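Hi R.,

Here's the chain you asked about this morning:
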Amino acid sequence: VTYRFPPFGSNTQKKKDIADEISLFCWPELEDTQAVKQLYQSQNSETFSFVLTEGDGSKRFGYCRRFLGKEPECYCLLSFFPSFGLFSQILDIVEHRREEAKTSVFTFLKSVLAEKIPQPGQTIVVKSFSTKGQSQDVYKLTRSDNDYEYLDYVSFEPLFDSLDIKDILFLLESLLVERRII
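And the predicted structure, written out as C-alpha cells:
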C-alpha cells in the first residue's frame, strides 16, 4: 500500500493491519511471476471484489480495479455495504480520471466520501473539480436495489480456461460442504 485515502486517524494499528491484509487481496499472485506475466499480456485492467470477515462476524466488502501497465497499481475501496454496481461505477470514474492526473482521482474520491452511501435503488450526485477547465464534473451514482447484483458481473470463463473439470468439481464440492478454500 503506497497511499491510503483518507489518511490514518484513530485506531491506527488496526487500520494498518487491515491495509496489510488488503494488499494481499489486491495482488495475490505476486509470488507467481508466470501468472503475473500472463495477466499482463491478457488485459489492461481488471475489476474484482472480495469480502473480509471480522472476528465478530461483520463483513467488509472490497472492490478493486487493477491497472496492469508498466507500473501496475490497484485502487481498492472498502465498504460495509455490498454494492458491486455502485463501486464499479466509482471505479470506472477513477479509471477515467486517472488517465488525466492522479490528483484528479483523489479529488473525486474526497467528493465521494463527503456523500452518504445511497439507500438501495437511490442515486447520489457527486460534484468534483473538473480536470479540464474551471467547471465541476457532475456524476450520478446509483445503488442497485438487488442484493445479488454481483452475480451479473461474474464471468466463469477464466475459471473454465484455467482449471480442468476434476479441479472445478473439487472446488464446487468444497463450497457445498463449506470447506475453507484459500
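The chain has a mean pLDDT of 80.

Let me know if you need anything else.
M.
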